[in-house]
């Protein structure tokens, strides 16, 4: 009889421990996924993000002036940076930034457009690279 109650007690204790562990575990929605994108909060006041947006527009204009068709579209005009309105990061070999950039058609234009920019930063190499800069579909 003693053996039977000890097994029952062990089973009950194991169940309580398992339920405690499951209840304390973080939910999948709040746990960042390795290699996944993470939304950057408060981008409007984030100086680093705004600087990367300014960099992406400057690089776009540089490629436009120098005839490089890597990131610039044909017959495009130089842009003037306004602001980054959304950003996500992804840890790769460095940090990849996915930016939603608002830019104007020239310095004095009021016509603003939304662009998707991807910038890879490798701080240990002191390098920033504009990977893509395209009109945003939304």
Describe the structure.
By secondary structure, the chain is an alpha+beta fold. It has 2 helices and 5 strands. It has helices at residues 2-24, 47-65, and strands spanning 37-39, 80-92, 94-104, 112-122, 127-135. The chain is elongated. The model has no long low-confidence stretch (mean pLDDT 82).
What's a quick, concise take on this entry?
The protein contains two helices and five strands, in the order H-E-H-E-E-E-E. With 138 residues, it is α+β, with helices and mostly antiparallel strands.
Structural class: alpha+beta
Q: What strand line-up does the widest sheet have?
A: 1-2-3-4-5
Give the helices and strands as they follow along the chain: HEHEEEE
Which oligomeric state applies? single chain
Q: Give the overall average pLDDT.
A: 82
Estimated share of beta-strand residues: 25-35%
Q: End-to-end distance, in Å?
A: 71 Å
Number of helices: 2
Detail the poorly predicted runs.
Answer: none
Shape: elongated
Report the count of strand segments.
5
Described by strand count, sense and barrel closure, the largest sheet is:
5 strands, antiparallel
Percent in helix: 25-40%
Rg of Cα set: 25 Å
């Amino acid at each position: 009889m003693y053996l039977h109650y000890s097994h029952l007690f062990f089973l009950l204790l194991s169940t309580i421990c398992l339920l405690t562990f499951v209840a304390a575990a973080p939910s999948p929605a709040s746990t960042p996924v390795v290699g996944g994108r993470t939304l950057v909060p408060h981008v409007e006041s984030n100086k680093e993000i705004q600087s990367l947006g300014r960099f992406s527009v400057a690089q776009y204009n540089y490629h436009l002036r120098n005839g490089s068709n890597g990131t610039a579209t044909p017959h495009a005009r130089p842009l003037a940076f306004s602001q980054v309105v959304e950003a996500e990061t992804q840890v790769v070999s460095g940090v990849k930034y996915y930016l939603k950039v608002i830019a104007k058609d020239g310095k004095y234009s009021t016509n603003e457009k939304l662009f998707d920019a991807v910038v890879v930063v490798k701080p240990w190499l002191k390098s920033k690279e504009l990977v893509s800069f395209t009109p945003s579909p939304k």
